[in-house]
Amino acid sequence: MAEVITTDHDRLGSLRKLMHILYALYAIFWLTGGITALVAIVVGYVKRDDAQGTLYASHFTWQIRSFWWSVAWAVLGGALFATMILIPLAFAVWGVLSVWMLYRIVKGWLYLNDGKPMYQDQRS
C-alpha cells in the first residue's frame, strides 16, 4: 500500500473543516436535546492535541470552556427549578444561558471564519 503523506496545509485545512463542523454541532444542540453538544465535546477532547501550535487550538479551548460553563449553569438552573419556589429564577438562568451560548457560538464561528484565534495570547 502507498503511504499517505499529508502536508501542513492539508492538516490545517482539515482542522478548519472540523472546527466548522463542531460549531455547527453546538449551534443545533437546542434542536437535539444536547446530543450534538455531547458529540462535539468528545470530538473536541479527542482532536485538540492535533491543533497544538495553531489558531485552532484556541477554538478547541473556547468550545470546551463554553460546554462546561453551560453545563454548570444548566445544573444551577435545574437546582433552582427543583426548589419550586425559585422556578422563575431558574427560567431566568436558562434564558441568560441560552443567549450566552448563542453569543459564544456566533463569536467563535466568526473568529474562525476570519482566521483569528479566540484568545490573543494563542496566535499561530
Q: What is the succession of H and E elements?
A: HHHH
Summed up, the domain count is: 1
- Helical amount among residues, as a percent range? over 70%
User: Which structural class should the secondary elements be placed in?
Assistant: mainly alpha
Shape type: elongated
Mean pLDDT score: 90
Spans where pLDDT lies below 50 across 5 or more residues: none
What fraction of residues sit in β-strands?
under 5%
Total beta-strand segments: 0
How many DSSP H or I helices? 4
Radius of gyration: 17 Å
Largest sheet: none
Q: What is the terminal-to-terminal distance?
A: 35 Å
Quick overview:
With 124 residues, the protein is an all-alpha fold. The chain contains 4 helices and no strands.
Structure overview:
- The model has no long low-confidence stretch (mean pLDDT 90).
- The protein is an all-alpha fold.
- It has helices at 8-27, 35-47, 56-82, 87-114.
- The chain is 71% helix and 0% strand.
- It has one domain.
- It starts with 7 loop residues before the first helix and ends in a 10-residue tail after the last helix.
- The relative contact order is 0.13.
- Helix 1 (8-27) packs antiparallel against helix 2, helix 1 (8-27) runs antiparallel to helix 4 and helix 3 runs antiparallel to helix 4 (87-114).
- The chain crosses the membrane at residues 21-46, 66-97.
- It comes from Cupriavidus basilensis.
